[in-house]
Every structure is written in structure tokens, then in C-alpha cells.
Amino acid sequence: MLGLALNAEAAYQFRHALLRDAAYQLQLPGVRAVLHAAAIEAIEAAAGGRPAAPQPLDVRTSGRLAPHPVDAFAPELAEHARRAGEGGVRGAAELEAFYLRRAAVYLNRRGMLRAAAEAWEAHAGLAPEGEQSEALRSAAVARIHAGDVRAAEAVLERALELDRRRGDAAHEGHVLAALWNLRRMLGRVEEAEGGLREALARHRAAGDCAAEGLMLSNLAGLLLDLGRTPEADTASEEALRLLRRAGDRRNEGHVLGIRANVEARLGRWSAAEATYGAAIAAHRAEENHAALGTVFGNLAIVFLETGRKDLALRTYEEALRVNRASGNRRGEGMVLGYLGSILHEMGRLEEAKRPIEESLAIAREVANPRSEAQALANLGAYRRATGDRQGAEQAYGQALEISRRLRDRRMEGLCLCDIAFVRIDAGDATGAREPWEAGIAALRAIGDEVALRHNEETLRAACEKAGIPSIGVPAP
Predict the structure, then answer these.
(1) Average pLDDT, whole number, for the chain?
(2) Mind listing the pLDDT tens digit for each residue in 192-223?
């Protein structure tokens, strides 16, 4: 390649935008290509040289590149390599792929997830055949955290097609795990459950413990969403055992997080707190920053349920900071809802309104129907607390409609109970009875003892405040 030595005055003149563009346009395409190659050499020399060649890209090595000073220039270096290649410089395509991968990892660490996804997708077009699907899977994961789930679905379908064409059943398992989990996020629960079970059977038959464990963990998350907590308990415990047997450290944080969610739903607060702590440690070890905020948000629920409100508030604030720093728009919306809810519970109503409304807006922006239902329920609680009974019942009704569409029996039961409480506030015991009985029946059907106790206590307090006899029904 061509080496260039510029004095300070010439360098300044060349950096001036108009002079630079004019000088560039005067060059023949072949000369431009050599200049781009020279720019790569100059940047590398100024940033400590070219990093060592990375390990082949797979699920274990994706995102795991040792930081290097040149990484800050990786997107620019990839562009220089692309333009050098257009002019016929040998080795430019390989160098472009090299720096696109480094750019994707660097941008992901900086929380620039959409840009990271674009770099991964461009890398997939240049990578060796056996690495293309993993580049696409990595792009889809970045898009999911950024809230661009519909684009992520299309990228995963491309990755799946590549794996099936090559007969790479092992990697196909990881792509399917991401794809069916995404469809679960979109509320397509029947489709997701059928797909997860089919893929689970395939990987179990193939003896692929890592893929089986990841698929089983995602199934456990879906079962928990559907209120089938005992099944989720068994599945999440087995998933963790399988993943550890396979030595899959990359996905351990994800599986631990789902296991902790199940423990929390069952009211096993000490176990849940420990498991969330282990999930945080696993995500940090794997530099999976985008997942950390969600786990912090769930851990804060444990602190809240065990009477540590101040610690819960600080943890929610940390979760929000982490999600914003990592670019996790989806997680940001969820945590804002939690934050608004705890501020409401602490009596800080005016502070609660904004995060609740922001949570609802983000849930709709990123197509997260489960979070949208929760945000609407939080909005209903806020309106009830401020005396807006009509607005409260309207918000709860919208949350109820979404929950039924998602087949989320727990959320359905909670919303029905909340509608009953609004009517009790208005002194309408007769109108409250039907939603109360339906709501409490839904919670009993899924065996959610924590929610049952909480709602029965709330009912007694609401009836006492309204000065009406309790409408509670005895346990069957």
C-alpha cells in the first residue's frame, strides 16, 4: 500500500471539507482506491496497529473481541476498505469484513444498537459461509433490544434459511430459540408454543444439550406468561441443568433470569434474589450489557415485595440507567413502568405520572403488547389514586383486552380485580361483584398465591374505606 507523509499545514488543508472533497473528486478511481488503502494504514498506525485476527464467529465468540484503540475508528475503516475494494485493491473485502465485525461489537458496547445491527448485517454479506448466520443472529438480537422487533424477525428468518441450506442443525437451534422467543414477545403465543415444542423435540433427539436448554428456558418464559407456573418451574429448572451440563456460559444469564422470574412468581423471594444476582454476574462476565437492565428491574420487584422500598427505587433507577446506556429501548420502557408504579406506591403521584406515560408510549413504539398491558394497568392505578374513576376503568379495560389476546391469565385476573376496586370506590358493590369473582377465579386457576393474598387485602381495605360490606367470596 501507499505510505503518505504530510506536514501539519498540508494535513490541515486536506482535512478542510471542501478542499478534501475537491481533491478526492479529481482523482481517478484507481488512485482513490489507493488513497483509501493509505488512509487505513495511517489510522491503524495512529491507533496502535491492526488488531490480531479474531476467532471464527459463532455463538460463543460473537461479541467477544478484546477492546483495541482502533475500534473507535472501525466503522470508518470498514468504509475505507469498501471503497478501496471498489477500486480493485486486493484483500480489501476481507479487511472490510474484519472491521465491520469490530465495528458491530464496538457499537453494541456503546449502546448504538441499530448501528451495530447494520454492521452485523453488512458483515454477514462478506463473512465466510459458516459465519453468516451467526452474524445475522447477532444483528437480530441487537434489533430486538433496540425495539425494532419486526425487522429482527425478518433477519432471523434469513439466518434460519442459511442454516437449513447448510444443514447446520446446532446453530439452527440458537436461531430458532431467538425466533420463537421474539414471536412470544409479539404476543403470538400459540404459534410460539407450538414452534418451541417442535424445536425442543428436535434438539432433544439430536442430543444437543445447549440448544435444548435454551429452547426449554424460552418455553418456561412463555408458560410463565400464560400463568402455567408449575410447568414453568419444572422447565426452567431443567433448562438450567442442561445448559450447565453443556458448559454454555454465553446463555447462562438469560436462563438464570427466567429461572429467577419463576421463583419470584412463586413467592420464593430469597431464592429469586440469589438467582437474579447470579444472572447479573453471568451477563457481566459475557459483556451482555443490553440484558442487564431487565434483570435489575426484576430484582427491584423482589426488593419491593420484601419491604425494601428505598432499595427497590434505587435498583429501578440503576436499571433505567443501564438500559439507556446500552440502548435497550424495549427494556427502558418496561423499567419506566416499574419506576412509575413504585413512585405511586410511595405516594409520589406527580413524579409517577411521567414514567408511566413514557412506558406506555415506548411499549407501543417497540411493539411490546405485554408491556403495553402493564403500562395501561399502571395508568389505571394512577388515575384511580387521583380520583379519575372513569379514566381508571377505561385504562384497566384496555389492559384486560390485551391480556386476553395474549392469553395472560394472571394479568387478566389482576385487571378484573382492579376494575372491581374502582367500582367499590364509587360505592357500586353490585357492579364490582362480577369482575371481582371472575378475577379471583382466574388467579386461583393458575395458583398465584401471592397475587391472591395481595388482592384480598386490597379488597378489604377498599370496602372498608367505601363503607360497604366486603364482597369477597369464600375459597372453594
Answers:
(1) 90
(2) 898 889 888 888 888 888 888 988 999 999 99
Residue 357 CB partners (closer than 8 Å, separation 6+)? 379
Task: Give me the pLDDT at residue 339, please.
Answer: 94
Contacts (Cβ under 8 Å, ≥6 apart) of 235: 216, 217, 219, 220, 223
- 3-state SS of the chain is CCCCCCCHHHHHHHHCHHHHHHHHHHCCHHHHHHHHHHHHHHHHHHCCCCCCCCCCCCCCCCCCCCCCHHHHHHHHHHHHHHHHHHCCCCCHHHHHHHHHHHHHHHHHHCCCHHHHHHHHHHHHCCCCHHHHHHHHHHHHHHHHHHCCHHHHHHHHHHHHHHHHHHCCHHHHHHHHHHHHHHHHHCCCHHHHHHHHHHHHHHHHHHCCHHHHHHHHHHHHHHHHHCCCHHHHHHHHHHHHHHHHHHCCCCCHHHHHHHHHHHHHHCCCHHHHHHHHHHHHHHHHHCCCHHHHHHHHHHHHHHHHHCCCHHHHHHHHHHHHHHHHHHCCHHHHHHHHHHHHHHHHHCCCHHHHHHHHHHHHHHHHHCCCHHHHHHHHHHHHHHHHHCCCHHHHHHHHHHHHHHHHHCCCHHHHHHHHHHHHHHHHHCCCHHHHHHHHHHHHHHHHHCCCHHHHHHHHHHHHHHHHHHCCCCCCCCCC
Q: Is the CB of residue 58 less than 8 Å from the CB of residue 131?
A: yes
pLDDT of residue 474: 46
Cα 161 off chain centre by: 24
Q: Which residues contact 286 (CB under 8 A, 6 or more apart)?
A: 63, 64, 249, 250, 252, 253
132-248: CATH architecture: Alpha Horseshoe (1.25)
The per-residue pLDDT for range 131-187, each reduced to its tens digit, is 999 999 999 999 999 989 889 999 999 999 999 999 988 888 889 888 988 988 888
Domain ranges of the chain: 1-107, 132-248, 408-476
> Considering only 36-50, 185-199, 256-270, 436-450, which range has the smallest mean pLDDT?
185-199
- For the cut 60, the answer to whether the pLDDT of residue 11 exceeds it is no
- Number of neighbouring beta carbons within 10 Å of residue 253: 21
Per the document, the length of the chain is: 476
Mean pLDDT of 306-317: 95
The DSSP code for 69 is G
Determine the pLDDT at residue 202. Answer: 82
